[in-house]
Amino acid sequence: MLQGRHILEPGDFELSDIDQLCSLAEQMIVDPESYVDVCHGKVLATLFFEPSTRTRLSFEAAMQHLGGTTLGFADASTSSSTKGETLADTIRVVSSYVDCIAMRTPKEGAAILASRYSRVPIINAGDGGHHHPTQTLTDMVTIRALKGGFSGHTVGFCGDLKFGRTVHSLLKTLSRYPNNRFVLISPDELGLPAYLENEVLKRAGIEYVRASRLEDVIGDLDILYMTRVQKERFFNEEDYIRLKDSYILDKDKMHMAKDNMIVLHPLPRVNEIAIDVDDDPRAAYFKQVRYGMFARMALIAKITGAL
């Protein structure tokens, strides 16, 4: 049962929760009019201490499509944190006003801290390089809709695997399903963190390979998950400039891929997917955006007890 639970990392979803939420999201996609009032009278706070477009607007649109309302801030400079208020006190105050809180912060572990002081469920909308569970839920809804299920796939993660919290979250989640194989495509400097390789992949005996060139492995993939190289995660701008164009997916590379491969991306993209890929029927990243709103609608409805 999801009602009242904090969602801080993908592991907070049981596999049965994922199936339930995906099924509910699919129902909402087919028949959105049946859900327009389920959160009437409920309030969602969106506390975004880090810039966001899709995630914040997706949460706000989700709550409004359910008949609820939203409040919060999109810029930490407009909050009392600029006066020195602690995160704990901010959460104590805001949770007195609302039914759930979606929070994004650049500080790893901040969502866990917030959950200790909140009267209402906290949904982690991204905490630094750690977790982004609702992006993972979005990805799972998209994969089920377009690939039919979560098992038996060869999944390529390409780009920034070191700092990419969406990669970390989805890899951990797909690792819980049988017969998935992973291809880790990155420069050495942006490789998957050792703790994920050791504690998730090796510990479970999951098959995976590393690759330095996308064109060498794209033909093997059922799902290609592209990521941008994130400037905000670098301490050294020279390193960012050197690595930012490491992998660019274009029409020529897509010719090497399977006819039924799908391309996902958490967005925003910079130039890692050329615009000539957008019209390819295998490009699913804008469908992914739409599915994300319905995924968040399903989650909000469940954790607030509206459904």
Helix content: 25-40%
Termini separation comes to 11 Å
Low-confidence stretches: none
Counting DSSP E segments of at least 2 residues, the number of strands comes to 9
Q: Describe the global form.
A: globular
Assembly annotation:
single chain
State which percent range the strand residues make up. 5-15%
Summarize the biggest pleated sheet.
5 strands, parallel
What is the strand arrangement across the widest sheet? 7-6-5-8-9
Number of helices: 11
Q: Can you write the helix and strand succession as a string?
A: HEHEHEHEHEHEHEHEHHEH
> Using only CA atoms, what is the Rg?
19 Å
Helix/strand class: alpha/beta
> What is the average per-residue confidence, as pLDDT, rounded to a whole number?
90
Structural description of this entry:
There is one protein chain. By secondary structure, this protein is an alpha/beta fold. 37% of the residues lie in helices and 14% in strands. It has eleven helices and nine strands. The strands form two sheets. Strands 7-6-5-8-9 form a five-stranded parallel sheet. It has a four-stranded parallel sheet with strand order 2-1-3-4, sandwiched between helices. β1, α2 and β2 form a beta-alpha-beta unit. α1 crosses α5 and α3 packs across α4. The longest helix is centred in the last third of the chain and has 19 residues. It is globular. The N and C termini lie close together (11 Å). The mean pLDDT is 90.
